[in-house]
Amino acid sequence: METRQGLNRLGLRRGASGGGARLLGALCLALLATGCSELQARHHARAGNSKYLEGDYAGAVREYEAAEQKYPDLAVVALNKGLACRQMMSPGSKSPEQQRAVDCATASFLKMKQLTPEDQRGDRLYVQTLFDGDRFDKLVEIYEAQVKADPKNMAAINGLISVHSRAEHWNEALRWAMTRADIDDKDAEEQYAVGAMIFARLYQKGGADKAGYDPRPDPNEAPPPKPSKRRGKKHAKAEPPPIPTKMPPPFVVGDVVGNERVRLADIGLKYLQRAIDLRPNYREAIGFISMIYRQKSFAYLEKPTEWEPLVNLANEWLAKANAVGNPTPPTTGSNTAGTPPNTGATGSNEAPAGAAPPPAAPSAAPGSKPAPATGSSASSSPATSG
């Protein structure tokens, strides 16, 4: 009875019209066609793999596109197409070909993420391609959305620091480095990283060639003559003052100068002080305090009375750094309190004494171009498509 009812529903019982049979036949043909389409897609995918291994990346992309037209749901084809497009990218290029290659790769990895969300390669390669393709605005959008959802998402904050550093948005990179240090305010290393980052900026932007200059008058130099009026002419103008014998090394366009140099130096000193409050014998942080005081003094090269106290503080902190551990080489051109000043600019560079080099900003994505992946690891060949 149940069998007869089932046949009635399908229209296949004896004497019924042939519409049900035709429907079933069509379903079978559709399934067969789908299987054939997938087989054809895999054939194109294997041809694409061969061209990829031969170095014909454009040819590989054409084969992968043909595979997608036959059967669009193969994640391995999306992966390999993205890898082939990445191989056609030229780091730093702004050409139309570069933009097409980046668009191709990012679209492919996005598709892979949709087809196999459990495979982390899709997301990792998508983010990596945005970095390598200089798509910084998109990366900022991604990471800021993550921070908005979780303000203490350190991976996203590190990503923002890395993106803004790569994009040369230094102020934004500093802002997020300070945010990271404020969140993790019990970590001395995070506080130190802000100070080291600021020192590197001040040193690179006008602070590399001024340590040897002493703006104070040379006690061994005769005082300049007083300006005199010309004789025989009533109300004659005084003679112009003599040209100064000492001129500070000049700043150039793009250097950090004046109030901005002072402001950045004060921020760096604040975070380095936090570091040594957490770790009193933090020798690297103590050394950087010395060097930032020296960098701050360069804002006052034409104001000796304001320059000198900062140099004295730099020397005091240098002595503290030496007292903590092994002796620290003195900063080139530095003066100790009470010693005769230099007679002029020496042009020497300030060596970063008493501290380790500034740490690089942590990156949320590696900076090198990934090799084509096989399975779950990276290799020199595309992933197999079966």
Task: Write a structural description.
By secondary structure, the protein is mostly helical. Among the domains are: 28-134, Serine Threonine Protein Phosphatase 5, Tetratricopeptide repeat; 185-217 and 250-365, no CATH class. Helix content is 57%, strand content 1%. The protein has 13 helices and 2 strands, in the order αααααααααααααββ. Strands 1-2 form a two-stranded antiparallel ribbon. Helix 4 (75-87) packs antiparallel against helix 5 (96-115). Residues 1-17 and 327-380 have low confidence and may be disordered.
SSE blueprint:
Blueprint: H1 2-10, H2 19-54, H3 57-70, H4 75-87, H5 96-115, H6 120-132, H7 136-149, H8 154-166, H9 170-183, H10 188-204, H11 258-278, H12 283-297, H13 304-324, E1 373-374, E2 377-378
Antiparallel strand pairs: 1-2
Helix pairs in contact: 2-3, 3-4, 4-5, 5-6, 7-8, 8-9, 9-10, 10-11, 10-12, 11-12, 12-13
Keywords:
single chain; 386 residues; mainly alpha; Serine Threonine Protein Phosphatase 5, Tetratricopeptide repeat; two-stranded antiparallel sheet; 13 helices; 1% strand; disordered N terminus
